[in-house]
Structure formats: C-alpha cells, structure tokens
Amino acid sequence: MSNYDEELEKEIPEFKDSHEGKKSEFDISATMSVVQIHGWKQIIGIISVAIIIIGCWEFFIRLFNVPGYVFPSPSAIVVALIRSIPTIYTHFFITLGELASGFAIGASIGFIMAAILTQIPFIEKIITPYIIVLVTTPTLALVPLLMLRLGFGIFPRIIAVALAVGPMVMINSVTGFRRTDLAKIALAKSYGAKTWQIFLKIRFPLALPMINVGLLVGGIFGLITAVGADMVGGKMGLGNKIAYYSSLARMANFFGVILLVSIIGISIWLAVTKIGQKYASWQE
Amino acid sequence: MDDIIIIKNVSKAYKTDKGEVLAIKNFSMEAKEGDFITIVGPSGCGKTTFLWGLTGLHNFTSGEAIILGEKIEKPRREVGIIFQQANLLPWRNLINNIYFPLEIMRENINGYKERVKELIDSVGLSGFENSYPRELSGGMQQRASIVRALSYNPRVLLMDEPFGSLDAYTRSEMDTLLLDIWERTKKTIIFVTHRIEEAVYLSDTVYVMSPRPAVNSAIFEINLPRPRPRSITTEQIFFDIVINIQKIIEKDVEKQKEEGKYQSQAYSTIA
Q1: Which of A45, A89, A263, B173 places its Cα 20 to 30 Å from the Cα of A171?
Q2: Which value does ipTM take for this structure?
Q3: Numbered residues of chain B with Cβ closer than 8 Å to any chain A Cβ
Q4: Has residue A71 been placed in a domain?
C-alpha cells in the first residue's frame, strides 16, 4: 500500500475497502527474484561451478573405482540416457502431457475462482480455509484413490496434477487481486470507468506479478505430482521409470531419468520467469 | 459571465468506528469559466474530501453542488482531477498512461494523437513517450499526469496538492508551468494546497478552509497582475497577502486548540 493510500485513508475513512489492504495468508513472491543473470561474468561463473562439480564427481568415481550400481559417474549417466532414449521418450511425453493438461486445467480454474471470489469478500473468507486445506494436503496422497476409481490411465494423473496446481495458482492470484491500489482505482473511476474496466485495466495488471508466482509454484508442484503419480501405479511415465530402474539397481539409467525431470522443472522456471519479465517487470 | 461552478453549503460526514465524523461543514464557493481558484488550509482539513466531492468520486451529505449547470452525481467528462501523487500506472509507459483516460472513455485514440503530441511537447516530455514511470523523475511524472488530465480536454480541472511530494525547486518550476498551461488553455482550475505562497502565486481567488470540520474561513481576491512573473513572489505586496492568510489559518488552528479539537497536523508557511 502506498503512502498516498494511507494519507487518503486518514482523510477519507470510506476510502478503505473491505480487504483493508491485508495480505493473503500466502505470499511467496520472494521465489521470483532469486536468480537474475546479468552479464557474461556471471554466466561464466555459473558454468565453471558446474564444470568443477561434475569434474570432481567424475574424477573421484574413477579414482576410487566405485561400481556403477553403487553410484554412477556423470559420463555413464549421459551414455545410459542416450542409449535409453528409444524406450524412454514415450514416457517423457506422457509425463509432460499429464503436466501440461493438468496445469492448463488447474491454472485456469484457480485463476477464474480467484478473480470471482475476490469480488465477493464474504464468500472469499468462507472459501479460503478450504483452499488452504487443498494447498497443504499433498494431492499425491489422493492418487491411489483416483486410480482405484479411474484406472491406471492418464486421466487420474491429470486430475491429480490439476488438483495440485489449481489451489496454488488460486491462492497466489487471490493475494494479487487483493493488492488493490485504491488511488489507481479512484483514478479510473474519475474517468467514469465501469467495474469490468477497473478489473481489466487496474486490478488484473496489478495482480499479474502474484499470478506469475502462482504459475511458477503451481508448475513445480504439478511436476512433483505428475512424477509421483507415475510412481504410484500403472506402467508409464517418467516416475514409473525412476521406480523401475532403481529396483533393478541400474543407477546410471535412474539418474538419467532424474536429469530429464529436472530439465522439465528448469524449463518451467525459465518460461514463467520470462513471462514475468515481459509482463510484470514494472514491479520493483 | 455566469458561474460554472456553484457550491452552496455542502457538508460531508463519514461513518467511522467511533461514530460520525463531520469533515466539511457548510462550505460554499463559486467559479467563473477560466478562473484559477485555490483552496488553502491545514493538512487533513477536508480539502481532498471536498475535491473528491466535486469530481463525483463520492457524494456530499448535504448542500448543493453544481458544475456546468448540472448537479454532481458521478464523475463526468467535463471535470478532470489530478491527484496528489502523479498516480501513473507503473505497468504502462508514458504515452499509454496518457491514453489511459481515452481508453476508459472508449475514444478513438487516433483522433487524439496530434493533440497529445502537442501537449507532451509543451511540457517538455517529448522523447520520453516509451519510458516507464519508474524511469521518470517526480516532476516528469507529475507533468505526465497533467498531460493525461488534459488529453481528453475537460473544461474544469481539479488539482489535489499535485506538487506536494516534489522538492521546492521542482515545485516552483511546476507552478510556473501550470500558470503557463492555464493561460494558454483557459481551463477553470480548482487547486488545493496547504502552501499559502503557492496559493497566492497561482490564483485569482483564494478560499481559506478551517481545520476539520472544514468551513469557509476567509476569501481573498488576489489582484496581482497577469501574466504573473515568478519574481512577484519576492515583492512586499505578495508577502503581505501571504502573511494575512497565514494569520487567519493560525487563528483558526489556535481556536481549535483551545476547544481541544485540533489534532496536530503541520501546515507549511513561508518560513
């Protein structure tokens, strides 16, 4: 809330709206500003750390002659991953598909619910505890039940991902929509703005940085849930492959799949951060 | 010429947790087309409340408020307001901030491009069209907000301590710029400030507002020559008016203190 808002509130008591500028229970905006890469020096630094770690790893595995089933060397992981591509790529796309469709469904529902609920403060107060229950309960725990009802196909997994993503996007969007700058709303009103114009041109852009945080956290939770759901049952998905390779002690393959999963995770982070830089970078 | 703004005995009361608070009590004023009128009074006395009432952002509790022959009920196109802080939208660049009111009014922006360009030139902001508010200084932001208010050409301009948050030098620069714009566009301006010198330098008429609940305390006609050079602010005749107004405000505050009603709120003087 700006100083101007506070001043206005002092002079015009009615200026306060029902939210009283309070933050929502969850505010994870810090996750967005963790890494910002500036210039070549930093990039070279980051890459050299990776080279040192991977080099040492490779060196010590060879020096002590550690067998591959105990702990594989980086080179062995890469070789195993490349060799397993023909069998693993379908699983990669299955998990990616679960994640993408679950994310799309969950994020849309979460966003729309946040947009509607914040317009009706009373209902928002009643619904919020249930959303917190959904956020704090790992939806992974529901997967066995979903599979019992819906079989071992892709649908129960998509539902699980959507259930993980939706509340995350919603709770962060709610925080964003609550962050109403009343002086800016007064500005729009002074031009005769209608409610939908205020929503579209003030409330939504103001909420965008927090919606973006919701998409990031939701994406990561969705990935965890997708891989986890693969592990619970059925014979497909990257999670399933992780469980399979570890049961056979094929550690090089095991790490290869984990590498794929973290590539998905990093891509989510990069994509959302890029969107954030484009549409929400006005925030200091 | 007829009065285009007629305010008769308006009052505004708020319901708060502690009961009803009277912010404005029977305040009256009028303005003719092209007048520059300033309302001066201690901080928090109800000046903003009054301007918001004129804009139609909220309604007065009682009294009669007419602008351009029509009772004020809701915000109108003919009446523009400039807020205390530039109040630009941080996610829009300068030019899109200026187009914001036109967008809300669903006007065809193409028809205004030339006008906006001239306005931007006249306040010295050309070349900054694509800059974001955070890249602009406080003075530039406030100049942008003046252009934004003028973009759709309202007849009456309400200004709520627009230069309050600027440093002294920028503020006097902005005062001069505002006079210049006013002389060119002949808008009717109602300007609110707690700085007496600013009020005297700018206006034809100064209305003094008492501390809360705000009532008419005094009216001063400022008969200094137009166009007004900045140098007038160093002349004895200017100081005399300023000191007269200051005495009245001090007396009002003193009276309230005696009655135990005054909540300490600084107001600035020429000191």
Answers
A1: A263
A2: 0.86
A3: 14-16, 21, 23, 44, 46, 48-49, 52, 55-58, 74-77, 80-81, 83-85, 87, 89-91, 100-101, 103-105, 132, 134, 152
A4: no
